Amino acid sequence: MKDLDNIPALMADIGARARAAAAELAIASAERKHAALISAAEAVWQTRAAIIEANAKDLEFGRDKGLGEAMLDRLMLDETRIRGIVDGLRAVAEQPDPVGAVMAEWDRPSGLHIRRVRTPLGVVGVIYESRPNVTADAGALCLKAGNAVILRGGSESFHSSGAIHAAMIKGLKDAGLPEDAIQLVPTRDRAAVSEMLTMSEFIDVIVPRGGKGLVGLVQREARVPVFAHLEGIVHVYLDREADPVKALDVVLNAKTRRTGICGAAECLLIHRDIVDTIGQGVVRALIDAGVEVRADAGLQKIGGTVPAEADDWGREYLDRIIAARVVDDLDAAIAHIRRYGSSHTDCILTEDDGAAETFFQKVDSAIVLRNASTQFADGGEFGMGAEIGIATGKMHARGPVGAEQLTSFKYLVEGQGTVRS
Questions:
Q1: Phi, psi dihedral angles at 312 (to 5 degrees)
Q2: How far from 123 is each of 189, 216, 269, CA to CA, in Å?
């Protein structure tokens, strides 16, 4: 029985067992990892009633804690969403195994033959809030890449994450892989997070997935390398040459499909020349869809808008709220994004190829889209099966972090008694 009161000892034990499991996983066959993921997917589906029952406890906890509707939506699991978890596990299982893949290969005049091949990172620590599906996504992707993973879910998703984790463990057992390969921190105590951030002897990289407060804490206190996942301050720019039908469809989907995800649009920028035509129609449609539009002076003439405050620019609402402002031109839109964006995801709506190319070149976000909803900022939609998060930094991984991004590499060098002159 684990001593849940002695957090340092608890986390040291988890870390040591993860390090041992990582050594075994690093040489596990692709077939065994595939079998574990398929078995886990089947277990999730077979235990869906228990997962939904556990989720009901979390929803009750979240309501008592005062979570807003958008956060409760992130937390909620139903049969459709569990089917999505199952599909994600199967999709990861069917992807090519990245471990051992040859990234480059060449010969040198010295007679050396050199290969750069993918290797596991080792042990990944994932700290996440609310969304219990991350338990499956992160577990699957780390396993596929040959990594052990330590999962620390949010207090809100404690029961749901535990139920999903049990299914992941069944997959490991069925495939004969170490159960310690996917560990879930068994306490809501925040001290466990602080411990993870300093466990450099056990953890090779930390992936935070949550709001600004969590990510800021991790970046400030971590002694372990971090895959930065900043808040999604996502912009959509309506260019002068935007198509009105595409603009209406994309903006509504980008804001309203799911407001509580990091790819949801949070700020709408409208070219001055189309304010009274396309712009007014889009803003009106947002209001009719129940979105509170916090508008600058140039848009306040549209009935139903709310005057924007200074802190509405550069804000992640994760709710049915969007900031909106008029910009003079493409350069002004890019300048706004550079000042207020989070390097996550930004979009231009235009039929002008030149404007799109300029936007693509000058907006330095992890994901930049043209004429497509920002809700596609998702590893599953990128063909990765799932994602562990959207990395907004520039070191190692950037954008959706899938199994391939959870690997490093090494050089395999072969000679024939070759010596250096």
A1: -80, -20
A2: 21, 22, 42
Nearest residue to 63 via CA among 55, 214, 187: 55
Residues 267 and 160 in one domain: no
Bigger pLDDT: 272 or 209?
Answer: 272
Q: What is the mean pLDDT of residues 322-339?
A: 98
Helix H or strand E encompassing 295: strand 292-295
Mean pLDDT score, 312-341: 97
Domain of residue 135, residue span: 7-227+401-414
Same-domain pairing of 181 and 247: no
Contact present, 90 and 398 (Cβ < 8 Å) = no
Contact criterion met (CB below 8 Å) for 161 and 151: yes
Give the sheet arrangement for strand 367-370, strand by strand: 306-307, 292-295, 321-327, 265-271, 234-238, 345-349, 367-370
Burial of 153 (0-12, 13-18, 19+ CB in 10 A): buried
Output the pTM of the full model.
Answer: 0.85
Same domain, 194 and 296: no
Distance CA 17, CA 11 (A): 10
CA distance 37 to 94: 9
Q: How many domains does the chain have?
A: 2
Determine, yes or no, domain membership for 370.
yes
In tens, the pLDDT along 132-146 reads 999 999 999 999 999
Both tokens assigned to 383: 């063909």
Token pair for 14: 């988890």
Residue 351, Cβ density class (10 Å: 0-12 exposed, 13-18 middle, ≥19 buried)? middle
Phi/psi for 148 (5° steps) reads: -80, 155
Kind plus residue range of the DSSP H or E element containing 73: helix 69-75
* Beta-strand pair 205-209/321-327: unpaired
Backbone torsions φ then ψ of 176, nearest 5 degrees:
75, 25
221 lies in the same domain as 242: no
CATH of the domain at 67: 3.40.605.10
Q: Would you say residue 167 lies in a domain?
A: yes
